[in-house]
Amino acid sequence: MLGLRDVTISYKGRPTVKGFDLSLGQGKICSIVGESGSGKTTVIRAVLGLLGGGGRVTKGDILFEGRSLLSNTKEEWRRLRGTDISMIFQDSGAMTNQTRIIGRQFVEYIRTHEDMTKKDAWDKGIQMLERMRLPSGDNIMKSYPFQLSGGMRQRVGIAMAMTFQPKLLLADEPTSALDVTTQAQIVRQMMELRDTYKTSIIVVTHNLGVAAYMADYIVVMKDGEIVDAGDREKILHHPQSEYTRNLLEAVPSLGGERYV
């Protein structure tokens, strides 16, 4: 469904991601793991055509359902984003307008992509929030982002991203701003989305424990390049790179047992 072929991404002529390859099938989860500055977020922003600061793909191709995304017009991107491909961020609350209630923003988002009355869009927003196991969806729609906890804001972000049942969900550090208990809840809900809607997911994370729990396929990046890639069992038990082995060693253990 999604293919990145020898992709190089450059800023002002300087490559920051080099020779990136990935094939992702329907209903599969891929985790891109690495330290800050390794190029993880740059890759998924390129997939959604959201490279800022003059960044662009200078080599290779990005294919979605067999069609190159690099030739998309602004109108084609507008139709694709939020429908076939959606994205959630590290703190979804930071991506919303703090001076407007959730409901107004949710309704606006829905009506951008679908011809619907404000009332019907409001009802659809409530339905999506409750699917994310948020109680009293109407009260949340009437709340400002700053009135919600980090976990609740993240669920709102996921609810918005899943409104049109996208084929591909891009998640940029979706759990790193949350406490451990909430992290586990968000990870489980994302996996349920895959099981329910057959949504393919790319999760960017620095947490190899999260990647090991949820991913079918893991890509390890360092300094803009892939240093290891393979299915979960291969990466966890037969890593090729010293860097990957160091990441595995850094995962905390409990009672002498390491849970990756």
CATH architecture: 3-Layer(aba) Sandwich
Basic shape: globular
Mean pLDDT: 91
How would you sum up the major sheet?
6 strands, mixed
Q: Brief description of this entry?
A:
This protein has 260 residues and is of the alpha/beta class.
Features of the shown structure:
260 residues, four-stranded antiparallel β-sheet, 10 helices
Notes on the protein architecture:
By secondary structure, the chain is an alpha/beta fold. The protein has a single domain (2-258), classed as P-loop containing nucleotide triphosphate hydrolases (Rossmann fold), CATH 3.40.50.300. Helix content is 38%, strand content 27%. It has helices at residues 40-47, 74-80, 102-113, 118-131, 137-141, 150-161, 180-197, 208-214, 232-237, 242-250, and strands spanning 2-11, 14-24, 29-33, 55-64, 67-68, 85-88, 168-172, 200-205, 217-222, 225-231, 253-254, 257-258. The strands form 3 sheets. It has a 6-stranded mixed beta sheet with strand order 6-7-8-3-9-10, sandwiched between helices. α3 (102-113) crosses α4 and α4 (118-131) crosses α6.
Which SSEs are present, and which pair or pack?
Layout lengths: L1 E10 L2 E11 L4 E5 L6 H8 L7 E10 L2 E2 L5 H7 L4 E4 L13 H12 L4 H14 L5 H5 L8 H12 L6 E5 L7 H18 L2 E6 L2 H7 L2 E6 L2 E7 H6 L4 H9 L2 E2 L2 E2 L2
Parallel strand pairs: 3-8, 3-9, 6-7, 7-8
Antiparallel strand pairs: 1-2, 1-4, 4-5, 9-10, 11-12
